[in-house]
From TrEMBL:
Alphabetized SUPFAM superfamilies for the sequence: beta-lactamase/transpeptidase-like
Organism: Deinococcus gobiensis (strain DSM 21396 / JCM 16679 / CGMCC 1.7299 / I-0)
One Pfam family this sequence matches: Beta-lactamase
Protein name: Beta-lactamase
Stretches assigned to the Beta-lactamase-related domain: 38-343
InterPro entries assigned: Beta-lactam-related, Beta-lactam/transpept-like, Diverse_Enzym_Activities
Length: 359
């Protein structure tokens, strides 16, 4: 008598919860194995029901480094400060004064959060420190130096053009810390986030430092097990969280508790597929089939660290929430976008015909 594959059984439950179509269900196990070859966690939620699917013996309660899935949290902090009157989405951040006084006039919270401020992807010196400080390329910098780098090397694009930037979102996070009355540093950002986002939303295990023994150790290509450091640019990729907290965070976007900033997507030049729009902290991708309003399109973001890959998304139309937490960095061969591809598949945004990555 054959024993049923427990992973397939759990994935079938997830597919049922999300009401996936026959074609999506058929490729789901292969896509999961392609996205999480070294194990991880897939989390889904809909209508108040949650399901955490462990893969490869990884604890579903484990904490992962989020990499760029930190960026939706930074956008939520901006939204919270806007709601409190401490910030305005479309006014120059330099109006906040102090260390922000010298920033260019086109540096607004919205443009930095949507990667349309013309800020390079990384500080100039990261070209060297990515080699000399592989696991902590920004750690040598101060907050003031990060601001100076962005100020020196940015060029306002006209019309607005998409240029993905860790430096830009990191500078935004520092500005938000200042707006919240905190220090211009990673620690200041963490304090502001705890006070205005993770605390109010009930995310006790989300922060800049995981509790001892909770971290799912990264697995890099070179065998390293160190998390990736972000130094003063922590707001671009320095958070840690478990799958459960990520689902709670996504639910707060569906309910509006985390703000409504994800609704207003823009369409700058240069957006790479499958991104069709960019909202603060989120990308949008349309579902296949008949056209629906963009407000109903899935919102998502993914992240890549040296030894971890992540994705988080939600569908305003279906109420579905998805997170993918994969142990292991980008592969040398095979599908490099497998984690976001899995998230989009689960959200019903994958473009037909559906195939397993690399297949």
């Amino acid at each position: 008598m054959f024993r049923r594959d427990p992973l397939r059984a759990r994935l079938a439950e997830a597919a049922e919860l999300l009401d996936l179509g026959h074609e999506q269900r058929g490729v789901l196990p292969a896509v999961v194995r392609a996205a999480l070859p070294r194990g991880g966690v897939v989390g889904v939620s809909r209508g108040g029901t949650r399901l955490l699917v462990p893969v490869g013996g990884v604890s579903p309660a484990g904490v992962f480094e989020l990499a760029s899935v930190t960026k939706p949290f930074t956008a939520a902090l901006a939204s919270a400060l806007v709601a409190r009157g401490a910030l305005t989405w479309d006014l120059p951040l330099r109006r906040l004064g102090g260390p922000l006084r010298g920033l260019p006039a086109h540096f607004t919270a919205r443009r930095l959060a949507t990667h349309t401020a013309g800020v390079p992807g990384h500080p100039a010196r990261a070209a060297l420190t990515a080699l000399t400080r592989y696991h902590d390329p920004y750690g040598h910098m101060t907050g003031a130096q990060a601001l100076a780098s962005a100020r020196r090397w940015s060029r306002e694009p006209r019309p607005p053009t998409f240029l993905y930037s860790n430096l830009g979102v990191g500078v935004l996070a520092l500005a938000l810390a200042h707006a919240a009355g905190e220090a211009l540093s990673a620690e200041g950002y963490g304090a502001a986030l705890a006070g205005h986002v993770t605390g109010p939303l009930g995310l006790p295990r989300t922060g800049l430092k995981p509790a001892p023994g909770e971290l799912i150790a990264p697995r890099g290509l070179l065998g390293g097990h160190e998390p990736t450091g972000f130094g003063p640019l922590a707001g671009a990729g320095g958070l840690f969280a478990p799958a459960g907290d990520l689902l709670t965070f996504g639910e707060a976007h569906l309910s509006g508790a985390a703000g409504d900033h994800g609704q207003a997507a823009e369409h700058p030049r240069g957006l790479p597929r499958p991104r069709a729009g960019a909202a603060p902290g989120w990308f949008t991708t349309p579902p296949p089939g008949p056209a629906v309003p963009e407000t109903a399109w899935p919102r998502w973001h993914d992240g890549v660290a040296r030894g971890t890959r992540t994705a988080l998304g939600f569908s305003p139309a279906s109420g579905a929430l998805v997170t993918v937490l994969a142990r292991g960095g980008l592969p040398l061969l095979g599908a490099r976008n497998a984690a976001p591809a899995l998230a989009l598949l689960l959200l019903g945004a994958a473009i037909a015909p559906l195939t397993a990555p690399g297949g």
